[in-house]
Amino acid sequence: MLSFPFYADEKDKFSSASAGKTLTNYVIETKKPLLANLDLKKRFVKEGKLEHQGSLSKLWLGVPLKIKGKVTGVLAVQSYTDENAYNESDLKMLEFVSDQISISIDRKKAEQDLKAALINATESDRLKSAFLTNISHEIRTPMNGIVGFTNLLKEPDLSYEEKQEYINIIEKSSDRMLNTITDLVYISIIESGQVKISISDVNINEETENLFSFFKPEVEKKGMKLFLINSLPTKEAIIKSDREKLYVILTNLIKNAIKYSHEGSVKFGYLKKGKYLEFFVKDKGIGIPKDRQLAIFDRFVQADIEDKNVYEGSGLGLSISKAYVELLEGKIWVESDEGKGSVFYFTIPYNTEKKEISESNDTKIEDKSESQDKNLKILIAEDEEYVYEFLSIILKKIGEEILYAKTGEEAVEICRNNPDIDLILMDIKM
Ligand code: ADP
What we know:
- By secondary structure, the protein is an alpha+beta fold.
- The protein is 42% helix and 20% strand.
- Bound molecules: adenosine-5'-diphosphate (ADP).
- Adenosine-5'-diphosphate binds next to helix 6 and helix 7.
């Protein structure tokens, strides 16, 4: 003869406040098997532990289904006709079955986790390989251009036009390499959490107009048109923001719009939407497949993973832009139709008040343009001699005297002996 409740006893706390008053929930909460006959059920109903729903079965048997010690369900059987349908050995049997089911669910879950981990690992491996191939391509290609055409420049019988053409290629290759390296530097600063926001007055109309003048020749060279839509009058277009970051974001988006388009027009500008300015850069270019529209904001990711179309780029521009937009408390997204074009949008707060958290260093910098008329005494501390030579050539215009230190110690010594030095340019790694 069994005494009821079987296993579950009065000490078992059953709140059932949120769970619903059923025997299943009773087993889930108490984590114990339960064999309940009509008498017990009626007692439970009276005690408020069970809600009377429909006709009560004569005997109810349930055991918890546990995965890694956590109850994830209940295995239950009930009889409406026979109040002696199950006994203790049935309960033991059901517990055994429940254990077996739990083990097999557990195994299946572990299998699925392993499969997911394998897919992830394969995907990151593929991304890593694509990134390495891409980056080495992005560095090697311009480097070949620079080295190859510098050698060609040594040829004695070159015409003026040939020389200009080679110099142009060298310039373009250097720009491309510098872009890749700059992007790599930006992304490592972002990843290390070292990015500082520098807030100052930014006249956005001025910024967009400068970008318009800068990119117009490049767009027209491709036989396309560039349009700018500024929606605020200049006096309302001065906001508190980080000019440099805004410039980088817009430059990346416009460069991409030009790079990934072969005809039509590129339009960019902004609209004021409530407390935000919503910038847009629209092109009629190759577009982005729907399933790549989120991934392209991740670092080193290109829409065309295999790089079949061999567009220049390291897959960093958008992730840098995204990080900057978020630092400026905005959002960035894309709407695109493959083969028809893309519109990149981002928002930044329309903030005309000074921000306390991100006081700018820029704003404190005095206008030193006057000093350009002066003849300065400049110290260049640099261990690479060719860098010193390059700097001394370009600094000749403003420098009356240019001093050179090859080591940090030499630099300190020169400073001690020349307290009237106006400007020191020092290699950050010395
Ligand atoms: P990349 O240096 O490769 O251009 P980005 O991070 O700027 O890197 O862009 C990531 C990828 O997003 C690009 O490789 C390209 O596949 C896709 N993409 C970005 N902008 C556009 C655009 N305007 N039109 C089509 N595809 C674009």
